Amino acid sequence: MQEIVLINITGPDRPGLTAAFAGILARADVQILDIGQAVIHDTLSFGILVQMQGGADKTDVLKDILFKGSELDQQVKFTPISTEDYAHWVSGQGKARHIVTLLARRITAEHIARLSTITARHGLNIDHIDRLSGRIPEGLPADKGKGCIEFSVRGEPADPEALRAEFLAIAQELNVDIAFQQDSIFRRNRRLVVFDMDSTLIDAEVIDELAKAAGVGEQVAAITERAMRGELDFQASFRERVGLLKGLPESTLAQIAQTLRLTEGAETLISQLRRLGYKTAILSGGFTYFAEGLQKRLGIDYVYANALPIENGVVTGAVQLPIVDGQRKADLLRALAQREGISLEQTIAVGDGANDLPMLSIAGLGVAFRAKPLVKKSARQAISTLGLDGILYLLGFRDRDGETTG
Question: What pLDDT shows up at residue 106?
């Protein structure tokens, strides 16, 4: 008669443990139904669900496992699994799975307690927990740390919007980011990433910097802020702001370009994406003069932005059509996906303003990065606590997969 037993083994990790226990099971022709292993701070937790012959054969196998565990300084526990419990476990196969990603400078017990309480309340069962971030050295400044824990959960929330709202609330309260994604084949099969430029790839709004140089900084900054919050039509606000730049010397553009700083993690993210074969693009409501400079610096594949007409060495204040606004960004994302021969599910869009929402909403993964409140609330995913390279964690990459500190 066949019997099912769960074998749990815990103790100091060392080479050869799996081989030792598997070798004992192999001699009895035991069938492996499930297996899992984790090592935390050199301590092993190893589980094997097996099916074996009952009676004396089973007793001999378990006795040998117990003796080997004692010899290797391991604690061994045997749990019989009933036919009903096994059938219930099998029936869970194929049920919806999601990934919950927790990101913070430092991850605390409260973060995990609050997150896991919410998942349980919405009927989601945590099957697996994994640390994606690297080991944090002691003494590292708090603002330089980078932590990421990934939870694989099973089940389908009855009210996904309510779940997301709860995650967003504790993210704001605890200064963390929480992403909730379906665990699908597309998650690790994205091929194209498109970025807004201002306040996303670079740590500035270029048009505001130009306006300061032109002596109209406060006027333009106020218009920019209202447009990014979604309070003004982007095209109308863009025309108004560019008109205020009339007469600005072309030499000023070069001076400002030299002062622009990349956003934290931007260089690391782009280099990793290029290494992994992703295509990248800038879709910006800003200006081609600056976007093309970033393209050369970072190795971006495509750039679409607005021209800044110059005549006789000064900015004319005119606007060239078509203006790259929110709808234009979404249209460009569709066109690039078609050009690359991929589906929208295989695309990622990253931005911070209201004019980024159309492309964030149609991308397979839309990420509001250090975004305005309206954008953060409307986008499916948001990162505010870490740099741009935190996006790699949403794709399931670990720090050990490459240098993700930037």
Answer: 92
Active site residue 325: no
Amino acid type, 397: F
354 shares a domain with 313: yes
- Structural domain that includes position 149: 97-182
C-alpha count within 13 angstroms, C-beta hemisphere, residue 325: 16
Q: Cβ distance 180 to 167 under 8 Å?
A: yes
- Claim to verify: residue 83 and residue 105 sit in the same structural domain: no
Neighbouring-strand partners of residue 347: 192
pLDDT, tens digit, for every residue of 113-170? 999 999 999 999 999 999 999 887 777 777 778 999 999 999 999 899 999 999 999 9
Cis link prior to 322 (omega < 30° from 0)?
Answer: yes
Long-range contacts of 361-364 (CB under 8 A, 24+ apart): 361/330, 362/330, 362/333, 362/334, 363/194, 363/333, 364/186, 364/190
Q: Which CATH number belongs to the domain containing residue 131 in this structure? A: 3.30.70.260
Q: Which long-range contacts (CB under 8 A, 24 or more apart) does 331-339 make?
A: 332/194, 332/281, 332/283, 332/304, 332/359, 333/194, 333/283, 333/359, 333/362, 333/363, 334/362, 336/192, 336/194, 336/279, 336/281, 336/302, 337/192
The verdict on 112 and 50 lying in the same domain is no
Q: In the structure, what pLDDT confidence band is assigned to residue 404 with cuts at 50, 70 and 90?
A: very low
pLDDT (tens digit per residue) in 343-389: 999 999 999 998 999 999 999 999 999 998 889 989 999 999 999 99
Domain with 355 in it: what CATH number? 3.40.50.1000
Specify whether 301 is catalytic. Answer: no
Catalytically annotated residue among 196, 325, 352, 399: 196
Q: What is the pLDDT of residue 403?
A: 53
Note the pLDDT tens digit of each residue in 257-275.
999 999 999 999 999 999 9
- The residue among 49, 66, 91 that closes a domain is 91
Q: Which of the following is catalytic: 60, 127, 198, 233?
A: 198
Q: How does strand 75-81 pair with strand 31-40?
A: unpaired
Q: Are residues 253 and 124 in the same domain?
A: no
